What we know:
mainly alpha; 125 residues
Amino acid sequence: MTFVDAVEVVAIGLESAGVAAIAIGALVATVLAIISVGRRNPTYNRFREQLGRSILLGLEFLVAGDICRTVAVTPTLENVAILGIIVLVRTFLSFSLEVEISGRLPWHSVPAISAVGKPQPNPLE
């Protein structure tokens, strides 16, 4: 087995892990939402968060697979440019999902909760 063959196998493994993370995460989130509905618990926000987290994890694996394949196997200028576009699109998707899940920008900290249960201002902002 050559180096290129080994890297191709690793890239396929990473991409398969990405697809599996999304599919299994969606299945688990759906099952948990169905169970939660049966118990009359609020489910929508929890379902969205769990599904979003699985998509984020899957995107990370897919980007890693693309990087391995492009940089190690076929590092032409055209392929690197295509990789750059793919990474930009997936990074934007990841950023958008993170903001959607957490409800805040990643560089904003979560407000501290005081003893009376009210958020306190962050002195570092």
